[in-house]
Amino acid sequence: MTTFVDEVKLYLRAGDGGNGCMSIRREKFKPLAGPDGGNGGDGGDITIVADPDVTTLLSYHHSPHRRSNSGEFGMGDYRHGAKAEDLELPVPVGTVVRDADGEVLADLSEPGMSYLAAEGGQGGLGNNALANSRRKAPGFALLGTPGDEIEVHLELKTVADVALVGYPSAGKSSLIAAMSAARPKIADYPFTTLHPNLGVVDSGNTRFTIADVPGLIEGAAEGRGLGLEFLRHVERCSVLVHVLDTATLEPGRDPLSDLDVILNELNSYEVPEGQVPLTERPSLVVLNKVDIPDGRELAEFVKQELEERGFRVFFVSAVAHEGLRELGFALGEIVEKAREERASELESRPRIVIRPKPKRQEAFTIRVEGGTWGNIYRIIGRKPELWVKQCDFTNDEAVGYLADRLAKLGIEDALVKAGAQAGSTVVVGAGEGQIFDWEPTLSSAAEVMTAHGTDPRLEESSRATRKERKAAYHEWMDAKAAARAQLEAEREAGLWTETADEKNS
């Protein structure tokens, strides 16, 4: 069963914005008291947060699909929809966030750092918010926009001050267990450690973290063994401790040859740009298992040559706890020095100033793309794409409002300059986008609608006045009297006679 995961792929879907409401207020004696539709709520954002209480990405390995809630719809009586609650995804400190192409989006190397991975959709405006002096009663509302849907890769790089590297079964797990409260798995066979272990060491007034990674073997750079896969966990370490086994029984192995192999593999590992290569960082050599007579004898034999190479050498026995105190103090001094250098580097870094984008930035661009049936004119821009998503194309008034917004932005003039003609295919947005058949003479709502925001129920009544009704009545009576006179004249002329039943009726 998997217990440690340091690399995972996440599929994030932020919540959609709620739709705005189209509503007309009705009161006693005021059946049409004006628009009262509320706005829709914004969708929830998805934020990745560095949490020191989280040590693995295991939960995201089992549930890689995460989604935040959508905003509520607006309602009548000026009631706005509720904004959806944001979703926070806690990850271990040291997690690197990458996009699907491998580009680094954020490096969460400090507790509390956060990255907005997916932004929730924007809530649509209700018809009350769309009303103005010219559009008194809008018969439409704006739709909520969909939230971001992205794929991100999380890669855990353990934040530790000291890293233990060496061959399998060199005693790294025993050493970290003896120096800290960590309890890694310890056994007498290679590759017992299958994932990095962390421990906290108190040495005098210094407290530092120490990491134990799976053992390295020759050829790790070509994929052999497990160590190279976990070398990312030593990228952030200030000190490397080479743990050499002085009591190995494998033929052809000794502390000096083991060190050469480890240094060669560390040199083959490429660290991110701007970081010091692993082989150029401060390092110590620990000759482990000196509690065994043959091990101590071999340690005494190779100590001088290691010191000539520039290494500080320590005789250590994790079983007998020999040499641990001296090793702890030496590591504490190096860690303190590294922290001071890091602090001075941060102070000397230039101050980052975030300036707002200028207001007069390019609102949109038009790309002419060749197609089977002629050129396609694609409009790319934040505002046009957002407005198209907010438009309810089942409402003619909403379509007219969209046309007005696009015309005011200058899109029609830009299409003419680009060579578009009546009937040309226009696409708003990347990919499939929203497709239109462009008609220049109908691009403005003023040309297809007499007025926006009108409601026939609010128009003035065409009821006739009293004088007009009286004149119409007299005209009707005169016409009736003329019809009776004509019938009487026809009867006297003998054109028709009354029957007995008609006389009695």
From TrEMBL:
InterPro entries reported for this sequence: G_OBG, GTP-bd, GTP-bd_Obg/CgtA, GTP-bd_prot_GTP1/OBG_C_sf, GTP1-OBG_CS, GTP1_OBG_dom, GTP1_OBG_dom_sf, OBG_GTPase
Region annotated Disordered sits at 451-470
Q: Name one Pfam family in it.
A: MMR_HSR1
Per the entry, which co-factors are needed?
Mg(2+)
Highest taxon above the source species: Bacteria
Chain sites annotated for binding Mg(2+):
S173, T193
Name of the protein in question: GTPase Obg
**Every Obg domain range:** 2-159
**Compositionally biased, Basic and acidic residues: which spans?**
454-470
